[in-house]
Amino acid sequence: MSISISVILAFVAVFAAMPTPSANNAIDPPVAPNKSAELKTKTGQSADLRGSPPEKASAHRELLDQAHSLGRIPVIVKLKTWVQPESMLDDDGIVQQREALSTIQQRVLDELSSRNGRDQAAMGIKRFALTPAFAMQASESDILELLAHPDVIDVVEDSIMLPFLMDSVPLIGGLDGAFLGYTGLGQVVAILDTGVDKNHPFLKGKVISEACYSSNVPALGATSLCPGGVSESTADGSGVNCPITLAGCDHGTHVAGIVAGRSTNASGVARDADIIAAQVFSRFDSASFCGIAAPCIATFTSDSLRALERIYLLRTSYPIAAINMSLGSGAFQDPCNDDARRTIIDQLRSAGIATVAASGNEGYANAMSAPACVPSAISVGSTTKADQISGFSNSAYFLDLLAPGASIYSAVPGTGYASKSGTSMATPHVAGAWAVIKSAQPAADPDAILNMLKSTGIALTDVNDITTSRIQVDRAVDEIAGPQATINTAVLPYARAVAIAETATAFASVINSGDTTALSCLIALPTGIPATLSYQTTTAANVLTGTPNTPVDIAAGATQGFVFGITPSQSMAATEIPLVFDCTNTAPAPSHPGLNTFILSAAAIAPPDLLAIGVTPSGDGVVRLPSSTGIGFFATAAVNIGSAGTVTVSADDGGRGLPLTLRVCETTPAGEWIVCGNSLTRLVGADQTAYFTVFATGTGQPIAFDPANNRLFLRFASNGTTVGATNVAVTAP
């Protein structure tokens, strides 16, 4: 690799095998039907009950009464077929199981259609690919036919659930938005809710896949909230929040912010995780359903089930750590083994994906809602920031975890933020924690993560003397990761500008601050950059060594130098590239603009290319103001290794809004001032070196010592495009 940098003034080196399902997530085999009871309807028709204890017979009567009154009602038809976790099957077995399920669905539907004269569209059929069931809008006679069908185990209500209405991150062990350096990078959390405002500044760039599942049920006054009123969509924009004129449509955005929001001043639990947004709610205009708050929103079980199946099918496309379900209904004093979503939640857990669900907000002392009550789901209750169990939080002997859920500040649609309380807010703390732990230990399965969160959490006891762990994520990360390699990186120079097909080279240092060797470490480009990257190791004196493009091990406590080159294949406006530094046994190095990112621009004709290095008086890359109103500075030498051209020189704080005023002065090599201003414009010849000093004056507020984030930038622009830049850290008492 040829190196175009001739002078360096300073360089600051800053699916394992699937587990056997445990007893609590194995699928119960179907029970042989008991036809000893007969059900009489208001129309005089009768049907045999299948395995019907008194509570099931009562549920059937209520279902038939609703259908008699309303005409057609949403139900879920459970089928008599055995479904195994797909992780236990080979590829042929998976295909055969899915085909068998499709066959039995079709058989039941064909026979029902032949009797009622309606096709599947008229019956509002929702078919499931993995769950032994289907959903439909059934008449009274349909329900009777289905209860009598030999392939049907049960017909149940397609129940309706409501949404359970970031200063909490440090409480669970976060420091600067990270947990021992882990931030959920490389992990994805799916959010089944009211949709996510993906354009909110706190969530910009986070949503990588979208879906919508919503229903039109005339008998209940329900209409779909999917784009165009369709019942399902996976198109771009399908996962956005429902209209904020409907109460509760800000819920999903708030939840998403808790999971993975990120800004310069705050972050969610897993600040570097991505999001799959699934909008699963429908609009209800029935005053009898909504009460005084018509219209309102709620979700059908079948729609959340369809979304869960969608997430399962995406598991091979994205590294999905967890699913967040801050919604629910009902009160279950024991695990709800019969919930229609159990099969798919079991499948997800067997595939290594946790379904994290809110326990509910009714303040029950001995019950929780569905789907949190599903045995293989991870149920979550709420605590206050004073580590008291929230009074509204449902509790039960089988509740899994607690997390902060009172007065949680997060994003709402638009650009704003709001505080909300509820187990809905506690649940995304756990889903985010799942992503953080998976970024620390990608092979960890849901059982291991749950056990670790329980054993390392803060034990809290409720009024029933039930003790549950409030998550303490840093402890869990420390425990589950064991001896760790942890890498941090620095890049110099910060910016280059080249011609198309010309290679821009720079240096990188990778520091292993962990206690074990970092294995097979490499440098790569993120997706979507129209360029190629090559790299090679160097000695401490920046002499090439090793083999090009070959990963290298880095011993604990050691620093490895690299030289890398990026060759653009087309013109590029100045693009800040978050380079990927990764090793096989570490989380990727966290990305910090100016510290280990790289700005690259490319043009048809070679532009100016200023190689700029900033130097502070202390020599350690930190400007230290003597007081909150004091003055500090750093000096820069910039050599133009590109074409001659006019450049504009300016200083900024990277958008942090630090309490500073900045001024740029051009100087002689000896530091004598030539001209000063907020920005300067000058002609720089090829191979010419220019000298500048940036002065920073405090405006009366302290600046925390946070060198990864609090930085000062000196930028060089030509024709509006960055052609050089350097930066240093800043702090003030």
TrEMBL record:
InterPro entries: Peptidase_S8/S53_dom, Peptidase_S8/S53_dom_sf, Peptidase_S8_Asp-AS, Peptidase_S8_His-AS, Peptidase_S8_Ser-AS, Peptidase_S8_subtilisin-like, Peptidase_S8_subtilisin-rel. Residues 23-55 are annotated as: Disordered. Belongs to the peptidase S8 family. Keywords: Hydrolase, Protease, Serine protease, Signal. Gene3D superfamilies: Peptidase S8/S53 domain (3.40.50.200). This is Subtilase family protein. GO terms for molecular function: serine-type endopeptidase activity. The active site is at D193, H251, S424. PROSITE patterns: SUBTILASE, SUBTILASE_ASP, SUBTILASE_HIS, SUBTILASE_SER. It comes from the Bacteria. Transmembrane segments: none annotated. Residues 1-16 form the signal peptide. One of its GO terms (biological process) is proteolysis. PANTHER family: CEREVISIN-RELATED (PTHR43806:SF11), PEPTIDASE S8 (PTHR43806). It comes from Thiocapsa rosea. Residues 186-461 form the Peptidase S8/S53 domain. SUPFAM superfamilies: Subtilisin-like.
